[in-house]
Please model this.
Amino acid sequence: MLMYLIVFVALILWSCFYLALNLWFPKLKCEWHCRVVTCVHAIIIVALSAWSVFILGPWPFYEPAMPNNQLQEFTCAISLGYFLFDFIWCIYFRTEGPVMLFHHVLSMVGNMYVLYYGSNGGEMLATLFGTEITNPLLQLRWFIRQNANLSSSFLATAVDVAFLVMFTIMRIIIATVLFYNYQTHPRPDTFAKVGSVSIYLIGWVFWIAVVRYAWRKYVLQSPRKFKRDTVKADLPASAIPPELVQKGADLARGDSTSLDDTGDSVVRSTETQNGLVHRSVAGTDGDRTGI
Model:
């Protein structure tokens, strides 16, 4: 009963943290605030799950479906409170598709299963560790793309590569080993094994989306486009519609986003110098998941 109270308190605390960010930084978008909450959750869960998996044990690769300890249940309760908050946020703002919503449902069901049955905490925390350790890089990618000066920088490319490599190692290679050991062990019940299949396949769906994005950006597209080099169109200022100039000024302040008719590019900034208008164009990629 205590753990369900912790879940409720965690939901309230995550919500209050989000509302506080809205009050402290009212000029920033709601998604910015939500991503900060997501990043903080990831850092906390990675720290707690790492301590549980690598220090306290049991080792989830060889001893699945063992009785929970208090740290495992406490971590799952905190994470469940976060996923409840984020699921409500996604539904309210309609930012996510069915795959991400299904991922959230699976995460909530998994945490509730651990708390209700009092077992499988070790492998649940191993799963949380593997999924959340890549989350700060995921959010950093999004924050970088909001800055026109950084979106085409070496830092942006380095973060993209680091995210892809870490995602592959944690969600595909190590997850496959854990998944195989879990499925072949006689102790976990059928419901837990079916749930592990679902969350494992979701990881593959996300990974394929990440690889496709990287392939389009760094292989298929022209260097000018995937490096997001500044495109300078030496046009008379009078030839540019006033509304485009205004949108460019808004974008330079980070107030809004303006896509072209194809949805393939966004004007990051517009400035007038010596009677010429210079437009900085950057390719768009991904949604709130950063994929």
Remarks:
- The longest strand covers residues 265-273.
- Residues 228-239, 251-291 have pLDDT under 50 and may be disordered.
